[in-house]
Amino acid sequence: MNKTLVALALALGVGFIASAHARQTAAAPALNDAQIAHIAYTAGEIDIAAAKQALKKSRNKDVRAFAEEMARDHAAVNAQALALVRKLGVTPENNPTSESLSKGAADELKKLAALKGSAFDKAYVDNEVAYHRTVNNALSGTLIPSAQNAELKSLLETGLKLFQSHQMHAEHLAQSLK
Amino acid sequence: MHRMMVPVIGGLLAAIGGSPPIAAAAKAQATAHAHRVHVIVIDKMQYGPIPAGLRAGDSIEWVNHDIFEHSVTARDGRFDIDLKPGASMRTTAVAGTTAFFCKFHPDMTGMLVVK
Questions:
Q1: What is the tens place of the pLDDT at every residue in A126-178?
Q2: Domain ranges of chain B
């Protein structure tokens, strides 16, 4: 599992990471809505950046279509998130989880940048499967239950449906690339 | 007016040089009875309820209320429409059962049953 996913899983105490380290972080501090909004937005931005990289590097028609979908959908969610925080007068609050996510994502982009052709395609899609699975667990296990504002909770729930759909799409694509 | 009477009266009007607007109105009324418009709303990553009583020749208006682009793509290739957020498009119902899905979000699926 790459650094981005480990960071997210540990910071949010996601249960499926069956490591001793993960168990030690089970009592992660409660998140407020401003932090949750920041984490969700950051998660979207990370996937958009990965998609842009894929669109620059991949020549595979299906991989490119998937990347276009990721960029388009996550941009739509993030636009809604920005509109919502403006409406609520909330300033998204940077936090250790968002920082860890960004750092891990930068490392992953660097790793993928060194790959070419089918090796890149496979690594990108495999990472998309793992990334969406991890974010889904974080959304359903921590972010959605912790959100206090009803509109933010609703947007996160829509985001969860989207991420679940993306995960399924990525899994199908990963199978076809084997 | 009884539906069966419409073509008869229309034919008589045509035969005696009757008013074309009246004949056209009668024909339009008959068509309106025959074909309906059904609306299916897409929102929050799912297709809304599929209307019952779809008949061949009816129009189906697909309305995308979601924040994402979606498609309505027939598995048999009969139709494939892309709907940006806020967009709507119509397809014409064809008799039979047609499975459809969103090509961008393959877990979004549905089934049209048209008589």
A1: 999 999 999 999 999 999 999 999 999 999 999 999 999 999 999 999 999 98
A2: 5-34, 37-114
| Sequence-ordered list of residues with C-beta below 8 angstroms from that of B83, at least 6 positions apart, any chain | B42, B62, B64, B69, B70, B71, B72, B89
- Please give the CATH architecture assigned to the domain spanning B37-114: Sandwich (2.60)
Query: Does B86 touch chain A if contact means CB atoms closer than 8 Å?
Result: no
Q: Using the beta-carbon criterion (under 8 Å), do A77 and B67 form an inter-chain contact?
A: yes
Contact partners, residue A17, CB within 8 Å, separation at least 6: A6, A9, A10
Are the Cβ atoms of A162 and B107 closer than 8 angstroms?
no
For A165, which of B69, B85, B107 is closest by C-beta distance?
B107
Q: Which residues contact B63 (CB under 8 A, 6 or more apart)?
A: B39, B40, B41, B42, B88
Q: What's the CATH architecture for A3-13+31-176?
A: Up-down Bundle (1.20)
Ranges of each domain in chain A? 3-13+31-176
ipTM: 0.76
| Stretches in chain A below the pLDDT threshold 50 | 1, 13-26
